Amino acid sequence: MASAASIPSSSQPEPPMVHASNIFSIKELAELKGDSSLIPSTYHSISQLHDDDDDAECLASSIPVIDFSHLTSHHPQTHTKAVHLLGKACAEWGVFMLTNHGILENMVEKLMEKSREFHDLPIEEKKEFGDKSPLEPIRHGTSFFPHVEKVHYWRDFLKANTFPQFNFPHKPPGYREVAYEYSQKIRGLVRKLLEGISESLGLASNSIIESTEFDSGHQVFVANMYPPCPQPHLALGLPPHSDIGLLTLLTQNGIGGLQVKHHGKWVNVNPLSNSIIVILADQLEVLSNGKYEGVLHRAILNNEETRISVVMVNGPALDKEIGPLAELLEKEKPLFKSMTYQDYFQFHQRTRLDDKNTFDDKLIVFLWNLEGFSILKAVEEDEVLEEFGFGFSFLFLLHSLWTAHILPPLLTVHCNEYLHTIEMAFVEITSILPNFVFQNT
């Protein structure tokens, strides 16, 4: 049983230039803009957001639903069927809606209410949690990591590490208490889900729990606020990305905006009443040796209503080295090298989160673990790397390692569809990107 934490582009004129790195919140930005119907160009996403709106809604009803009461049933046939459905949802979608989970609807409503109250606090009261390192136990901010982003995102957030130590603001009144109770209940759900996922892989129910030291696992509470956006067709709340942990559990205030990518198409996630959205994340992809994948998802915007979502990111113990489960490697080769969750977590939290880096972030894990090499630095002459972003600098590195025949087999497989793009990009950038410096370790 898990131990409890102790509570302690338009032709219209460009609006005045606003730098997101100097903006403390989207609410502040809206106040600065006044009645302007335009958003700063730094919030313009290069993605085509609405090129498949019909598909997005059409496929929404196909998202799997898992009945938690069946998964925990003592009736063997009911439990076995639920485990089969859970494995199918993980393999085919990477996301599902969890019903009959036992968390009361009025608790979720109170959580949404208090999350909204926090975001509505005066700026001066929230600055206590602003301008902090991404690894701080409590942090409030906007976008994802504005200091390194080239495109910013239309959201404010509160992030708090809630396990193994419970960290949380003391305002507004009552928020800390409901967040503590909710985070504990979520951990209980995740534990049972991980047991079911282990069984769906043909393993003992405690396999993932033990291999990740989940009872000391890291949990992050994230309260997102996506205010109405004057130009929702140009901006994103969050770009396409996969999550860093094992399982992410999400609830929201009834306003839609979450989309997942399924067979190359974006699909709206319209949760059933009092259901919890469960999203598979990167560590589970590694543990399952690629059988289950961390699903790409994003947050789109609207111009009428504020969306509030509470996201619980549940991961392994920070110091635990995570790799493919040994039981799965008896008949297959490992597709991932091992690394500690803390290393992965820190890399993710200090890196831009955008369309390009969704792919880059997954691959960099392999490169960090290539035996004999570590990146010392990339010389940023004339701010070339900043101009092109980490994505292009990564293509340069990837091309170099690929042509030197030192990429792991899986990385080559994953890169097959990108190799031509990498080759073309390399031709374009080799004349302006400086060489990387390597050190044999």
- Kindly report the CATH topology of the largest domain: Jelly Rolls
The CATH H-level superfamily of the largest domain is B-lactam Antibiotic, Isopenicillin N Synthase, Chain
Question: SS-based structural class?
Answer: alpha+beta
**SS element count, helices:** 14
Number of strands: 16
- Largest sheet, if any? 8 strands, mixed
Helix content: 25-40%
Strand content: 15-25%
Estimate nothing, just give the exact number of structural domains.
2
List segments where confidence is low: pLDDT < 50 over at least 5 consecutive residues: 8-21, 354-393, 402-441
Query: What is the succession of H and E elements?
Result: HHEHHEHHEEHHEEEEEEHEEEEHHEHHHE
Q: Between the first and last Cα atoms, what is the distance in angstroms?
A: 41 Å
Any idea what the shape is? globular
Overall CATH class of the largest domain: Mainly Beta
Q: Please tell me the CATH architecture of the largest domain by its name.
A: Sandwich
Mean pLDDT: 77
Cα-based radius of gyration, to the nearest Å? 22 Å
Quick description:
One of its GO terms (molecular function) is L-ascorbic acid binding. The protein folds into 2 domains: 25-352, B-lactam Antibiotic, Isopenicillin N Synthase, Chain (Jelly Rolls, Sandwich); 370-441, no CATH class.
Write the layout of secondary structure elements.
Blueprint: H1 26-33, H2 53-58, E1 65-67, H3 68-71, H4 76-92, E2 95-99, H5 105-119, H6 123-126, E3 138-142, E4 156-163, H7 175-200, H8 207-212, E5 219-226, E6 238-241, E7 247-252, E8 258-262, E9 265-268, E10 276-280, H9 282-287, E11 297-299, E12 307-314, E13 321-322, E14 339-340, H10 341-349, H11 355-368, E15 373-378, H12 384-403, H13 409-415, H14 419-429, E16 436-440
Parallel strand pairs: 1-2
Antiparallel strand pairs: 2-10, 3-4, 4-5, 5-12, 6-11, 7-10, 7-12, 8-9, 8-11, 13-14, 15-16
Organism: Vigna mungo (Black gram)
Keywords: Iron, Metal-binding, Oxidoreductase, Vitamin C
Protein name: Fe2OG dioxygenase domain-containing protein
